[in-house]
Amino acid sequence: MLTAFTNATIFTGDETISGKSLLIRNDRIESIADPSAIPADAQIIDYSGLFISAGLIDLQIAGGGGYLFSSNPHAEALKAITDAIIISGTTGFLIAIPTNSSEVYSKVIRVVRENPHPAVLGLHIEGPFISPLRRGAHIKEYIRIPAIEDIKTLIEEGKGVVKMLTVAPEVCTPEIIELLNDNGIIVAAGHSNATCREAVNVFSWGIRTTTHLFNAMSQLHHRDPGLPGAVLQTENAFASIIADGIHVDYSMISIAKKLMKERLFLISDAVEENLKD
Length: 277
Fold this sequence. Notes:
Blueprint: E1 2-6, E2 9-11, E3 16-17, E4 21-25, E5 28-33, E6 43-46, E7 51-53, E8 56-61, E9 63-64, E10 67-68, H1 75-86, E11 90-97, H2 102-114, E12 120-126, H3 148-157, E13 162-167, H4 174-182, E14 186-189, H5 196-203, E15 209-210, H6 226-233, E16 239-241, H7 250-260, E17 264-266
Parallel strand pairs: 1-6, 2-7, 8-11, 11-12, 12-13, 13-14, 14-15, 16-17
Antiparallel strand pairs: 1-4, 2-3, 4-5, 9-10
Helix pairs in contact: 3-4, 5-6
């Protein structure tokens, strides 16, 4: 069956298109065409005043639908979170789990593995290998220095589920970063008190991105630009940013975008009040 969405503003990711129609056949995009080229047998849906874009991907969402997943590591919570997120236009996401106990990590890994959903891309674990000086809302008692055995255990238990790990790079060794990379886990620098020199050095070890730029990390200062300074000047380093104007001022977001261009990407870092305890 062919369906034509007409009169919408279409965002392709590279350009914004008006005056065209999006043609979909059997749930697959077939083409973007002139309205005059729509076949006579197509079902026409008028999207006047609306936008059409590809689904969004968010690499850091901690909760939704009335549940904070780390506090409710159950299938019911995972379904409610997923249902609430996909109706908003985000069609793929990593569930973020802040610094917590080994028992909670085991539970969330098991629940995600046993309840697959195409929108749930896996887990983004923040901590517990972070700086207590930049912990933010993370539980101080669970923060620790990583040993190679800790990483091996996480890799084995989280195989196929844990996709990203945020660490304070100054507490890690090159061997730990290499082991994570070799096992397909993206390593992000965050909740870190690293100096600029320390951060530049660890980016050469294979850390690929940075968690919520400017937040919960050493600050951009003229005597030591800290982790933000290292990210801005390292050409192969990416960074997420919370662009709500509260976590980071819009002027600083603009500066970061001008310097980083496509290396900068948005996250919501959305949490949820525990309404379903």
